[in-house]
Amino acid sequence: MTTARRAGIDVGGTKCLGVVLSPDGDVVAEHRLPTPKGPEAIIDTLAEVAAALAPFDTIGVGVPGLVTRDGVLAAAPNLVDITHFRVGELLSARLGMQVEVDNDATCAAVTEWKVGAARGYDDFAMVTLGTGIGGGVVAGGRLVRGVNGFCGEMGHMVVHPDGPACPCGRRGCWERYASGNGLGRLAREAAVARRLTRVVEIAGGDPEQVRGEHVQAAAREGDDQALEVIDTFGRWVALGLVNLTNLLDPALFVLGGGLAAAGDIYLEPIKGWFNELLYSPHLRPHPKVVFAELGERAGAVGAALLADVH
Amino acid sequence: MTTARRAGIDVGGTKCLGVVLSPDGDVVAEHRLPTPKGPEAIIDTLAEVAAALAPFDTIGVGVPGLVTRDGVLAAAPNLVDITHFRVGELLSARLGMQVEVDNDATCAAVTEWKVGAARGYDDFAMVTLGTGIGGGVVAGGRLVRGVNGFCGEMGHMVVHPDGPACPCGRRGCWERYASGNGLGRLAREAAVARRLTRVVEIAGGDPEQVRGEHVQAAAREGDDQALEVIDTFGRWVALGLVNLTNLLDPALFVLGGGLAAAGDIYLEPIKGWFNELLYSPHLRPHPKVVFAELGERAGAVGAALLADVH
């Protein structure tokens, strides 16, 4: 526990969301602005959000991509043309104070660990199922950062070497299957093969327009074809979670990101396939699988908490 | 540094190898016996090896499979019919002293970390390329154990969901491709397709008899067809290392196991494919890839060092 007011800002693809936490960890202020294009404009926006959040004693920023331990955004596939962006140094110079910077999914992991679904756990993995897949790892009671700070890029784990092309330039990355985009792709494949009558209807009649939310809507009506896509999707999510379990043996997975909001329809398929795909499933405890407790503020709250875990 | 004499025993598929380390970490005694079948016979053999190694102040044991933090071998695919084998408790009762137990590849990781190729590293992964693939992870200067103690089962990471069946019951596990057995399988496929003239010759004329060592021998002669198999194999090794890099961001990989002895012919293909398969390879430092410094004693030495890291 601290007596400080801690500020955090999450830089998303469309908006920069800032919060201030009270000493108890409650959000006591919030401010958001659209995310502009280009590094200088982003620094301006961050400074503007920070000014709106003042006063605060510490500040952290979460950004999407590979973030070094020195607060440099080395590569950011979702922020066009940004490489080697010295976020920490530039914002620190502007604000006249230390700025902690880390990956946005790592920030979400910190949030769930400190004030969310993973409170009290020493070994867990956060997996954000959004446009892509990001994540963070806590092992032995400590945030795993990696030598460069790049730990947790689990979305680019290759799970099928001949799989679909990924924007990262490789093929068959986990996020091609198990993200929100992955669900949409699986659904469109089924729709084009005329196996998703009700889903296509909900999507307005064009199989190419089918997206994850249409599958979810049909699944909630009990549509068998939609439930089959959800099951296939759950298998891909489970496959990646099994890989992480074999490697890290966590007590808990916290699933976050956009899909977590409708998590209940995915949970049983994921658990069922997890049991099918795990090695020696009957001879070992299985990790719990739960959904994130904090929604869109997870990144900003985690950014505010970075000073406690770095 | 310690003043104690530390004993360690590695339970392999064919032999139990015990060592005693001097306070400086040198092997000052060694004893080996064949690995018998069945848990009781294994405890008898471990007690016999321990008696031959006496006197010692601490003792650890490395076993293949899933080892709990309490020293129970939960599952051991390579030791027939052994599940829930309370190695630590049973041997401790027999010897009248505390016995540390961990997975054999984890022991090898400890060895390389404390007295081998990973000395001084805080973030590295050990990958043992033997009959299968095992491993161990050190992150932020600490051995990652996992909530149950099962961290490092990276051989069962699924890298191709439609791949060949694995003895673990799943399909397309990394060790189906990137282990010694995996190399043999890749080579036999090529041999049966009549693409490995010289290798088949070295193997005695029967494509079905081709094994990894025959490919290595032909590759050393500069045989192009053999080098092509080595390249394919290097791609599979690299794919798994890339997955581990995305997830953990280590500074170093130490490759051990049987294949490490001929490591030089694999290193360039592995590094080349690593660069092809890693996301944003030009925007980030790459982990070093080196081979283990300790050979067949790695497991036993690591078992002796367990007391220092548990």
Summed up, what is this model?
By secondary structure, chain A is α/β, with parallel strands linked by helices. Chain A has helices at residues 39-53, 87-95, 104-115, 175-178, 180-192, 197-202, 212-220, 224-248, 264-277, 298-309; strands at 6-11, 15-21, 27-34, 58-63, 66-67, 73-75, 83-85, 99-103, 124-129, 133-139, 142-144, 252-256, 288-291.
Strand content of chain A: 15-25%
Oligomer status: homodimer
The count of β-strands of chain A is 13
Estimated helix fraction of chain A: 25-40%
What's the CATH H-level homologous superfamily of the largest domain in chain A?
Answer: ATPase, nucleotide binding domain
Largest interface: A-B, 52 and 52 residues
Note the overall shape of chain A.
Answer: globular
The H-and-E topology of chain A, N to C, reads as EEEHEEEEHEHEEEHHHHHEHEH
CATH classification, class level of the largest domain in chain A: Alpha Beta
Largest sheet of chain A: 5 strands, mixed
What's the tally of helices of chain A?
10
- Topology-level CATH name of the largest domain in chain A: Nucleotidyltransferase, domain 5
Provide the structure class of chain A. Answer: alpha/beta
